Structures are given as C-alpha cells and as structure tokens.
From TrEMBL:
InterPro entries: SoxG, TrmE/GcvT-like. This is Sarcosine oxidase subunit gamma. It comes from the Bacteria.
C-alpha cells in the first residue's frame, strides 16, 4: 500500500491547541504566500525595481540594493515567474515559497513587542508604511516590512520559523499576544 503524505505547515505543531480568537495584539501565520527572491544584474537595478513595482497584486520587499522579495497572496508563483522571465537576462530569480514563512503581527503596541527582539528604530517617522529591510529579529535573519499603521510582516527562513515564532510569542505575552493561521 502506498504511503500518503499530508502537507503540514512548519508551525502547525507550535500552534496546535493554542490557536486563539485574535486579541488586539495578534500574530497571523500566512499559509500560502508566494515568496520569490529577485536579483537585478549590475546596471539594471532601477529599471528592474520599476518593473517589479508595477507587477499587480504583489508586494515588493527590499532586501539589499538590487535585491527584493516579491510576495503575493493572490498571484501564483508560475504567473510571477512568467512575468519575471519576460524581463529578460537583466534579472535572476528563484521561488522561495517553500523555504520561507510569512508572519503578520499587529496591535497598538506592536513596536514595543518588536523592540524586544530587534535593534531597528520602528518609530512611524523613521520606518514608514511600505518600508522593509533585512535585519535580525530574535537573533534570526529575517525581512521586516511595515504594512500598515500598526502592522508588520516578518519573512523568515522555514528552518528558523519555529524558534522565531516561539520568541515573538514570549515577547508578546505581556500584551496578551494571540496567534493563529490566517
């Protein structure tokens, strides 16, 4: 008899039995976000950034000069890759969807929670809505983006997702941080 494998999210065991109705401070684990790493070849950074910015129903996360993460909850990886291939040899890209986990954290004191685990200045005047950067969060390399007034997204490598999730849960305990799958 053949063995059947069920797809499980890497954080399934971390949250199973603890998933709660959202409080004002909440971490949402996004299940099916497409994450594609894109790297512009030298001399093409500006035109590639413009082309990526114009891609509908996606969000662009800055990683480094000429390097971005293209993410989407509604456009398939195949569709994004087709678009990127059409940009020609000015760009290299790879689908990272299976290797990355996306967490959305929100709440009126979200900056206080994140301040416990990152050295970034997250004041609204410094870290604007739409801004993103690679950084250390709880000693783990991640990409942090401010997506709303009191909302941030964290993109982390799959192998570090459990540790990061547990640490953020601990940092948010004083604010009654809840968590669940989006």
């Amino acid at each position: 008899m053949p063995v059947t494998y069920a797809a499980r999210h890497v954080l399934e065991d971390h949250i199973s039995g603890f998933e709660a109705a959202p409080n004002p401070h909440h971490v949402s684990i996004l299940r099916s976000t497409v994450v594609i790493s894109a790297l512009a070849h030298a001399g093409h950074e500006a035109d590639i950034e413009e082309a990526l910015t114009n891609l509908e129903d996606t969000h662009l996360r800055f990683c480094a000069p000429g390097e971005w993460l293209v993410i989407s909850d509604s456009v398939s990886a195949e569709t994004i890759e087709r678009y990127l291939r059409d940009l020609g040899p000015r760009l290299s890209f790879v689908d990272q969807s299976d290797g990355r986990v996306v967490l959305a954290i929100r709440g009126p004191r979200v900056r206080s929670i994140l301040a416990k685990c990152t050295a970034l200045d997250l004041h609204p005047d410094v870290f604007a809505i739409g801004q993103s950067t690679n950084c250390q969060i709880c000693h783990v390399a991640a990409n942090l983006a401010r997506t709303g007034q009191d909302t941030f997204e964290i993109i982390v490598m799959r192998s570090f997702a459990g540790f990061l999730f547990d640490e953020i849960s601990e940092m948010g305990r004083e604010f009654a941080l809840t968590a669940g799958f989006a």
